[in-house]
Design a protein that fits this description.
mainly beta; about 475 residues; 4 domains; five-stranded antiparallel beta sheet; rod-shaped; Immunoglobulin-like; 44 strands
């Protein structure tokens, strides 16, 4: 009977102890980073009456957990405002102030997340980890799965990964948008208990390419083609590549790279041969990833050609910006010798002109006719592209009388040649019929007055030789007879 009583008494004591210990159980329910300053919130359940000590890993050292706060029984929450858990994971443990070896929680760690943005790949790479010091302590909670919360440009996109995965990449991230990421951890001991990592906001900054690039002009200048492009005002890129082709729809090759933040970009192509070759150009804006972002329309130089048939000068040229929707307008200019340039025609939607110059002949005008044109598109009338300058040389005709009467009466006293166009050099010689030189001059304005050495020559037939040279370096010679008589 005594043995039975002792057994029942022992059983009752064990039950009382078990109930007491159960009442004093201490369990952490949540440890989460709650803001971008790295503050940590810890929640726990505790049915005992003893004050609790909250310990955290030592920031300065790695040799254990140190006390950071005390909380009375009945309080189940603490916010650590000095955790800096946005910089690194932090580990915590809660113990009884009186029985730290008996009443003690598991060691739990925050999850620290890091992200990197690959702008060239349009990818956000995410990594996360908890805190483990293998020589001292480690996180005693075991992760079961992770939920990556991603708000990408206002659209929620979550991804669930089973542990032990601790990295993930989001692809096709739009440029220049706001994004927010954090990792939620579900633990193996309870799906109801979760912890959130630090949250990171990311603006996927990329320099904005121009909305447009306009090819404004392509003008021949000496042996170069001078290009001008207009850049949209919203542009933030400063790298541009000039492309060139010998065909409108051919292959375009990069010929140069330049850096500029200007609203207009000028470029000079020294290998263009603008007097005989049509070149096609476009400008492309390039971002930091060397991706071509914005491309201009195609521009080209204008090669002017001219041929002569008697008094008709035929001028032809290639079309300016043939792919453009707007019509081309051409202003054709002519320059005769050293005279001022003059606008002689305005043409739309045509690429040729015949200039009849018969009414311009005379000994006061050069036989050199030079032409160039300015082209513009009707949708951009303030920008001109100028062609090369091309010249034709009309061969002067030498006109001379058959006879003259140098008798001093003021009528037909001087023998002189007349030219259809002014030569650049002149020489006239008069010979007797026996081949003796009677007179010579290199002044086209000075004729022969019928004298030799100051004395009038005898009536008769003489031979003249007139040689001239044109602005085009053509040599022209006329030989004929001139009769001298005195009425």
């Amino acid at each position: 009977m005594d043995v039975k009583k002792k057994f029942i008494k022992s059983l009752i004591v064990m039950l009382i102890v078990a109930i007491h210990v159960k009442a004093q159980d201490l369990s952490v329910r949540n440890v989460s980073v709650i803001n971008q300053q790295g503050h940590v919130r810890i929640d726990w359940l505790y049915g005992g009456s003893e004050d609790l000590i909250i310990k955290r890993d030592n920031i300065e050292q790695t040799n254990g957990l140190v006390e950071i706060a005390r909380r009375p029984a009945g309080v189940g929450t603490f916010i650590d405002t000095e955790a800096n858990a946005h910089l690194a994971p932090r580990a915590y443990v809660i113990v009884s102030s009186l029985s730290p070896d008996v009443i003690v929680s598991k060691i739990v760690s925050t999850i620290h997340m890091e992200i990197s943005y690959d702008s060239c790949a349009s990818t956000v790479n995410i990594r996360w980890r908890d805190l483990k010091h293998e020589n001292y302590f480690q996180n005693e909670w075991i992760a079961q799965r992770y939920i990556i919360h991603a708000n990408i440009d206002g659209v929620q996109k979550n991804k669930v990964l089973e542990a032990p995965n601790q990295q993930y990449s989001f692809n096709d991230i739009p440029e220049n948008v706001d994004n927010t990421f954090y990792v939620e951890t579900q633990w193996t001991h309870s799906n109801q208990i979760t912890s959130n990592s630090n949250s990171i906001s990311l603006f996927t900054k990329m320099l904005i390419p121009p909305d447009y690039i306009r090819a404004l002009s392509a003008s021949a200048h000496s042996d170069k083609v001078e290009l001008k492009f207009g850049i949209a005002p919203n542009n933030q890129l400063n790298k541009f590549i000039v492309f060139k082709s010998d065909k409108l729809n051919g292959q375009y090759n990069a010929i140069d790279t330049m850096n500029s933040f200007n609203s207009e970009i000028l470029y000079s192509d020294a290998k263009s041969e603008p007097n005989k070759k049509v070149n096609y150009y476009k400008l492309v804006a390039v971002d930091a990833c060397n991706r071509q972002r914005t491309q201009s329309d195609v521009s080209n130089n204008i090669v002017l050609q001219a041929t002569n048939n008697d008094f008709n000068n035929l001028i032809t040229w290639n079309e300016f910006k043939p792919n453009a929707f707007a019509y081309s307008e051409y202003d054709i200019y002519r320059k005769i010798g050293d005279n001022q340039d003059e606008l002689i025609s305005q043409i739309t939607q045509n690429t040729s002109l015949t200039d009849n110059v018969e009414q311009l002949q005379g000994d006061k005008l050069s036989g050199q006719f030079c032409y160039y044109l300015k082209a513009r598109k009707t949708d951009n009338p303030n920008e001109y592209s100028q062609s090369n300058t091309v010249c034709v040389y009309l061969k002067p005709r030498i006109l001379a009388p058959d006879a003259f009467t140098p008798n001093g009466d003021g009528v037909n006293d001087i023998f002189n040649a007349v030219f259809t166009f002014l030569p650049i050099s002149f020489e006239m010689k008069i010979y007797s019929r026996w081949g003796n030189l009677v007179y010579q001059t290199k002044d086209a304005n000075k004729g022969w007055d019928g004298k030799q050495n100051g004395k009038s020559v005898a009536t008769g037939t003489y031979i003249y030789s007139i040689k001239i040279k044109t602005p085009g370096n053509q040599a022209v010679e006329k030989i004929g007879n001139i009769t001298v008589f005195y009425p």
